[in-house]
Each structure stands twice: as structure tokens, then as C-alpha cells.
């Protein structure tokens, strides 16, 4: 059984700048031909690789019978070559939307937490220990109030409430 190999080298570089958020860019190289492509969007790297794999597939199919004419496998490979990059773009766009929605949800949760902290008298930047200490104190105050309410309820039940104390 004959085997053909198609290999790629991917290099990723993370850029961090003051004027923009951290972002990735890269270079993809087809080892057998030496062809290279820079990319800022990973979908472009995938498209580059798909084209090279499809070229090798078409070449192998042509070599099998000596001609590409009327060869359904060659036609199917060509059709796949047109559709595969489109599907990659669809999947990449869908993934980017999910990431964007996740970021929006995180922002909403962060805002809600900040509002709760503000209502409790904490600044949003205080650390976890300070928040836990505040919650502990808040719990103690609730216990004191609960004990007072229980005393008042028992006095009311016994008829020894505030009116009887005034007399």
C-alpha cells in the first residue's frame, strides 16, 4: 500500500500592545513544498492546509489512472476543496460568537457582583478575605436581630410586652 504524507508546521506568536488587547498571529508552512502563509485568523491557516491536502489528493487520484478527466473522485475532491473552507469559516464564526457571548455574560456577572458589593458597602477591588469577613459580620448581626425578635415574640405571647413594661 502506497502512502503519501502531507505535513505542516504551525508557529504562533502572541502580541501584546498598549493600544490593543493581546492577540495571536501565526505562520503555517507546508513542509513538502515549503509554501508558507501568515495568518491572524486561524481559519486562514486551516484553509491553507485544506488546499494543500486537496492538491495532494487530486494529484494522487490523477496518478492512479493517468487522467483527471471524467474522474468522479477528482471532481469530488475539487468540490470538497470549494466547500471545506466555507465550512471552516462557518465553524470559526460560530466559535467566535460563542466566545463573544461568553465575554458578554462574564461582563454582566461582573457588573452584578460589583453592584452587590456596592450595596453591601464593599468596593469592587477588595479582596476575597475582606468580603468573607464582611459576610461573617453580617451573619452575626442577623443572629443578634433574630435573638431580639425571638425575645419580643415570647414577650408578646406571654403578654409582657412593651405596654406591660411601661406600667
Features:
single chain; 167 residues; mainly alpha; 3 strands
Explain what you see:
By secondary structure, this protein is mainly alpha-helical. It folds into two domains: 8-120, no CATH class; 128-162. It contains four helices and three strands; from the N terminus they run E-E-E-H-H-H-H. It has helices at 42-65, 72-120, 128-158, 162-166, and strands spanning 8-15, 23-30, 36-39. The protein has a three-stranded antiparallel β-sheet with strand order 1-2-3, with helices on one face. Helix 1 packs antiparallel against helix 2 (72-120). The longest helix is centred in the middle third of the chain and has 49 residues, at 72-120. The protein is elongated. The mean pLDDT is 78.
Number of strands: 3
Question: What sequence of helices (H) and strands (E) makes up the elements?
Answer: EEEHHHH
Structural class: mainly alpha
* Helix content range: 55-70%
Strand content: 5-15%
Could you give a short account of the major beta sheet? 3 strands, antiparallel
Query: What does the radius of gyration come to?
Result: 34 Å
The whole-number mean of residue pLDDT values reads 78
Low-confidence stretches: none
Lateral strand order in the biggest sheet: 1-2-3
Number of domains: 2
Counting DSSP H or I runs of 4 or more residues, the number of helices is 4
Distance between the termini: 108 Å
Global shape: elongated
